[in-house]
Protein backbone atom coordinates (compact mmCIF):
# COMPACT_ATOMS: atom_id res chain seq x y z
CA UNK A 1 0.00 0.00 0.00
CA UNK A 2 1.35 3.41 -0.89
CA UNK A 3 0.01 6.39 0.98
CA UNK A 4 1.35 9.91 0.50
CA UNK A 5 -0.19 11.32 3.69
CA UNK A 6 2.64 11.88 6.23
CA UNK A 7 2.33 9.75 9.36
CA UNK A 8 -0.31 7.47 7.85
CA UNK A 9 1.56 4.46 6.43
CA UNK A 10 1.13 0.71 6.38
CA UNK A 11 4.03 -1.73 6.52
CA UNK A 12 2.39 -4.72 4.86
CA UNK A 13 -0.74 -6.39 3.60
CA UNK A 14 -1.41 -10.10 3.72
CA UNK A 15 -4.47 -11.66 2.06
CA UNK A 16 -5.87 -14.99 0.99
CA UNK A 17 -8.82 -15.69 -1.28
CA UNK A 18 -11.07 -18.64 -2.01
CA UNK A 19 -12.36 -19.02 -5.56
CA UNK A 20 -15.36 -21.17 -6.52
CA UNK A 21 -15.25 -21.67 -10.31
CA UNK A 22 -17.84 -23.47 -12.45
CA UNK A 23 -16.73 -24.25 -16.04
CA UNK A 24 -19.78 -24.15 -18.32
CA UNK A 25 -18.11 -26.80 -20.51
CA UNK A 26 -19.54 -29.29 -18.03
CA UNK A 27 -23.09 -28.43 -19.19
CA UNK A 28 -22.49 -27.06 -22.70
CA UNK A 29 -19.60 -28.62 -24.63
CA UNK A 30 -17.29 -26.13 -26.35
CA UNK A 31 -18.54 -23.17 -24.31
CA UNK A 32 -15.28 -22.14 -22.70
CA UNK A 33 -16.75 -19.71 -20.16
CA UNK A 34 -16.44 -20.10 -16.40
CA UNK A 35 -18.19 -17.81 -13.91
CA UNK A 36 -16.62 -17.70 -10.47
CA UNK A 37 -17.12 -16.27 -7.01
CA UNK A 38 -14.35 -14.84 -4.81
CA UNK A 39 -14.19 -14.41 -1.03
CA UNK A 40 -11.11 -13.50 0.94
CA UNK A 41 -9.73 -12.29 4.23
CA UNK A 42 -6.49 -10.68 5.29
CA UNK A 43 -4.97 -7.89 7.27
CA UNK A 44 -2.92 -4.74 7.39
CA UNK A 45 -0.02 -5.97 9.46
CA UNK A 46 2.46 -4.22 11.76
CA UNK A 47 2.16 -0.75 10.38
CA UNK A 48 2.24 2.58 12.12
CA UNK A 49 -0.01 5.58 12.22
CA UNK A 50 2.05 8.51 13.42
CA UNK A 51 3.52 9.09 16.86
CA UNK A 52 1.95 9.06 20.32
CA UNK A 53 2.48 12.13 22.53
CA UNK A 54 5.34 10.28 24.29
CA UNK A 55 7.17 9.84 20.95
CA UNK A 56 6.50 6.09 20.45
CA UNK A 57 4.95 4.71 17.26
CA UNK A 58 1.23 4.10 17.17
CA UNK A 59 0.96 0.48 15.86
CA UNK A 60 -1.94 -0.68 13.69
CA UNK A 61 -3.18 -4.16 12.82
CA UNK A 62 -6.46 -4.25 10.93
CA UNK A 63 -8.60 -6.96 9.39
CA UNK A 64 -9.79 -6.67 5.81
CA UNK A 65 -11.90 -8.82 3.51
CA UNK A 66 -13.25 -8.95 0.00
CA UNK A 67 -15.98 -10.65 -1.98
CA UNK A 68 -17.14 -10.59 -5.58
CA UNK A 69 -17.23 -12.49 -8.82
CA UNK A 70 -15.91 -12.76 -12.30
CA UNK A 71 -16.03 -14.45 -15.68
CA UNK A 72 -13.23 -16.23 -17.49
CA UNK A 73 -12.99 -17.35 -21.12
CA UNK A 74 -10.29 -19.89 -21.98
CA UNK A 75 -8.86 -20.04 -25.51
CA UNK A 76 -6.81 -23.11 -24.57
CA UNK A 77 -6.83 -25.21 -21.39
CA UNK A 78 -4.11 -22.92 -20.00
CA UNK A 79 -4.67 -19.41 -21.49
CA UNK A 80 -7.71 -17.22 -21.01
CA UNK A 81 -9.14 -13.74 -20.53
CA UNK A 82 -10.88 -12.71 -17.32
CA UNK A 83 -12.81 -9.85 -15.82
CA UNK A 84 -13.77 -9.60 -12.16
CA UNK A 85 -15.13 -7.18 -9.59
CA UNK A 86 -14.61 -7.34 -5.84
CA UNK A 87 -15.91 -5.22 -2.99
CA UNK A 88 -13.19 -4.68 -0.40
CA UNK A 89 -14.10 -4.14 3.26
CA UNK A 90 -11.23 -2.33 5.02
CA UNK A 91 -11.62 -1.35 8.68
CA UNK A 92 -14.92 0.48 8.52
CA UNK A 93 -17.23 1.89 5.84
CA UNK A 94 -15.19 5.02 5.09
CA UNK A 95 -12.33 2.85 3.75
CA UNK A 96 -14.32 0.33 1.68
CA UNK A 97 -13.83 0.31 -2.08
CA UNK A 98 -14.79 -1.49 -5.29
CA UNK A 99 -11.99 -3.02 -7.37
CA UNK A 100 -12.23 -4.10 -11.02
CA UNK A 101 -9.57 -6.39 -12.54
CA UNK A 102 -9.25 -7.71 -16.07
CA UNK A 103 -6.50 -9.31 -18.05
CA UNK A 104 -4.85 -12.42 -19.40
CA UNK A 105 -4.52 -15.51 -17.19
CA UNK A 106 -2.18 -18.47 -17.48
CA UNK A 107 -3.32 -21.55 -15.53
CA UNK A 108 -0.99 -24.47 -14.90
Largest sheet: 5 strands, antiparallel
Unreliable runs: none
Question: Helix/strand-derived class?
Answer: mainly beta
Order of helices and strands: EEEEE
Rg, please? Answer: 19 Å
Number of structurally distinct domains? 1
Brief summary:
With 108 residues, this protein is mainly β. Helix content is 0%, strand content 64%. A 5-stranded antiparallel beta sheet has the order 1-2-3-4-5, with no helix packed on it.
Explained architecture:
- With 108 residues, the protein is mostly beta strands.
- The chain has one domain (12-106).
- Helix content is 0%, strand content 64%.
- The chain has no helices and five strands.
- It has strands at residues 12-21, 33-51, 57-74, 79-90, 97-106.
- Strands 1-2-3-4-5 form a five-stranded antiparallel β-sheet, with no helix packed on it.
Break the fold down into its secondary structure elements and pairings:
Layout: E1 12-21, E2 33-51, E3 57-74, E4 79-90, E5 97-106
Antiparallel strand pairs: 1-2, 2-3, 3-4, 4-5
Labels describing this entry:
108 residues, mainly beta, five-stranded antiparallel β-sheet, 5 strands, 64% strand, elongated
